[in-house]
Amino acid sequence: MQQFVRNVNPARIGDITTRESISSKDPSRDENTNAEKRYPVSYEEAPPKYFALQVLREDRCGGGTLSVMNVGKLSSMLSPSTCAALLRPQFRIDVPPEFVKNDASRHIIGSLMAADSSGAPNMLRFREDIMTPLNVEAAAALVELKDRLLGLEVQAETLHLTPDCLPRGSVVLMDNRRWLHARNEVMDPERHLRRVRWDARPFPAMTM
User: Fold this and answer.
1) Ranges of Basic and acidic residues compositional bias (predicted)?
2) How many structural domains is the chain composed of?
3) What pLDDT is attached to residue 117?
4) CA distances from 99 to 53, 105, 118, 163 (A)
5) Phi then psi for 127, rounded to 5 degrees?
6) What does the pLDDT look like over 142-161, one tens digit per residue?
């Protein structure tokens, strides 16, 4: 992992402990259900494109399952009008108070979805508690997106990586834009992960 980090510099490196996981939770940002899939640091103009998780100690008490959902599959479950609305920069994305760097940068305006070079909508950023639609079209699209995330079809397509799948020493590499992820409740006070984020670049968006 250390050699990997050297190869991807500049990168953001941080440890995830049970204390951090518990203290960072609040009613508007509960990650204990599969519906709470999200895209980390989605409030940045240039969020990291990739991230890696190294398991230093897995949850040995039955919690801490990582659940991931492919955005390409998710977009195929959305109506064309919803995908079109999510592709437009018509959402306010607030910067959480603990990450505000200056008063002039308390939010950004952007899209929630992006398309690849072929036009396929297969990239998404989502964190419900900080995203506000700016018009009726955007509001309707956000409602449909949240409904789909709660639906059985998405649940059937979600991959659940339990601690048995990711024992100590495991490393997960993920495209931050093409996969939504969540975890259920951490049960083991000794659970410990290391996270690396890199390749920050502007989130793609079409013009209005």
Assistant:
1) 22-39
2) 1
3) 87
4) 21, 10, 34, 30
5) -150, 105
6) 999 999 999 999 999 999 99
